[in-house]
């Protein structure tokens, strides 16, 4: 006959991290709710779970970065030669901002090409690293091509390339 219930936000930051639980409070500060009105108020008060999940507690991701002109490349932050590996330089800055916002770190693996399908079906370059599960994400934009669709999930464009 007890019509009280509780609602919890439950998630893990990473597989090796402990389970996180946050109770959605009912009226007052109790986690017990007894009506739909209590539930709706609790959901409104709780807000978006995204805002509670932005601290990834310093976990480390393996990332890839293409340096297509290694003989001319000096440093990822060197803007004196803006025309050398421009896509890598721009997207590296975006990744650093993402890392700062989400409290993450990354081990960067440098490759010299984006990845092309080889005669045996494997890929070289960045796509090869993804195919072998060596990377979590790329620090850069990459062209969406049909042969790459099976290997990676494309998220969003960082800038448009136009002629």
From TrEMBL:
SUPFAM superfamilies: Periplasmic binding protein-like II. Keywords: Receptor. Gene3D superfamilies: Periplasmic binding protein-like II. This is Ionotropic receptor 75d. It comes from Procecidochares utilis.
């Amino acid at each position: 006959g007890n019509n009280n219930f509780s609602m919890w936000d439950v998630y893990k930051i990473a597989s090796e991290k402990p389970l996180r639980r946050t109770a959605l409070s009912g009226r007052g500060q109790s986690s017990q709710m007894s009506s739909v009105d209590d539930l709706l108020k609790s959901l409104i008060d709780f807000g978006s779970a995204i805002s509670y999940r932005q601290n990834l507690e310093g976990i480390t991701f393996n990332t890839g970065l293409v340096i297509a002109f290694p003989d001319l490349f000096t440093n990822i932050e060197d803007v004196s030669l803006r025309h050398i590996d421009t896509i890598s330089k721009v997207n590296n800055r975006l990744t650093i901002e993402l890392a700062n916002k989400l409290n993450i770190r990354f081990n960067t693996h440098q490759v010299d090409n984006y990845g092309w399908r080889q005669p045996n079906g494997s890929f070289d370059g960045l796509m090869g690293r993804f195919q072998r599960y060596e990377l979590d994400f790329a620090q850069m934009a990459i062209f969406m091509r049909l042969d790459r669709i099976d290997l990676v999930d494309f998220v969003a464009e960082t800038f448009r390339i136009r002629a």
